[in-house]
Amino acid sequence: MNKDFDIIDVRAGIEAENGRFAALVRELTEKEGVFLINLMASPGAGKTSVLCRVIDALKDSFSIGVMEADMDADVDARTAAAHGAQVVQLHTGTSCHMDAKMTLRGLEAFEKPLPEVIILENVGNLVCPAEFDVGADMRLMILSVPEGDDKPLKYPLMFTVSDWMLVNKIDTAPIFDFDIARCERNVRALNPGLKIFPVSAKTGEGMEAFTCALSGAIAAGLSSKRKGAGE
Prior knowledge:
Helix 8 links the parallel strand 6 (about 165-170) and strand 7. Helix content is about 45%, strand content about 20%. The chain has one domain (about 30-230): P-loop containing nucleotide triphosphate hydrolases (Rossmann fold). A seven-stranded parallel sheet has the order 3-2-4-1-5-6-7, with helices on both faces. The protein has about 230 residues and is α/β, with parallel strands linked by helices.
């Protein structure tokens, strides 16, 4: 086939630029001793409810910061602040996700010293946030029972790139046709190493086991960063 025009791979350029900023995010969090979590889920899956449970469980052990990414408004930021976290509100406008450059700007907005744990509550979306590496130490996703156990089949990338997954709203399982075992099989086919925690942020079921495991992962991550910094 004759080609008399240039083809520019725009996506490759976007990914390369994002990768450079993700490296800067990692450099900053290593230097400052910060464990960064990228929290991702659909709108209404319970991100903010889970976030508040995490803040309450961990704030006596670690200083906690939250970056609230929303297209507009500050409702979730106010909620997180009321639970004792230092909060930075990020308005993304028409952007449906956070990228590494936005994340770096958010980190730089915190007062020094930076909180030991910073949780980025990403824009509600199962697609775009999965495509962008923001330089986080952990990608934590939430799937809620009302969304259905077939979501790993429909949105495979999110389940492939995540490190941990919460199945939230398990208190509603009797109402919906949601098979946790089937969901786990679908997930394991994509990501055998994904850690899965069934929870209810509303009732608290499963949250203690999750937050204890999370606390251990954070402590190990921070210890590794301190050793790397020569402390």
